Amino acid sequence: QVQLVESGGGSVQAGGSLRLSCAASRYAVSSSCMGWFRQAPGKPREGVATIDTRGGTSYGDSVRGRFTISKDNAKNTLYLQLNSLKPEDTAMYYCAADPERVNWCLWQISAYNYWGQGTQVAVSS
């Protein structure tokens, strides 16, 4: 019955920004590692960013310095701020929860038991 619902995706020009949200139901984003992943057509799903229960974050090499993961525990919502967008950022973006870990968040997709349906980000040149 856990639900993660992403929103905020859209079509933007290179250099633009978007803020993605992931609203959780019947799951506390404060309780475990949370992550954002993305998948472009024809490519495997890859990790974008993670955040642990202490607020510690990690980022994929291709987005570090441009994207910021955060959460609002009171709103039970996970966020991803995407700045300086590039065409290669075009992908379906998913939020996910790893209920087995509170720190030392993993990058392995298999560690994340709960997933949202995704929100599309398209960046044009």
Q: Can you walk through the features of this model?
A:
With 125 residues, the chain is an all-beta fold. It has strands at 3-7, 10-13, 18-25, 33-39, 46-51, 57-59, 67-72, 77-82, 91-98, 114-115, 119-124. The strands form two sheets. Strands 2, 4, 5, 6, 9, 10 and 11 form a seven-stranded mixed beta sheet that branches. The chain has a four-stranded antiparallel beta sheet with strand order 1-3-8-7, with no helix packed on it. Strand 4 and strand 5 (46-51) form a beta hairpin. The chain is globular, with a radius of gyration of 13 Å. The model has no long low-confidence stretch (mean pLDDT 98).
List keywords for this structure.
125 residues; mainly beta; seven-stranded mixed beta sheet; four-stranded antiparallel beta sheet; 0% helix
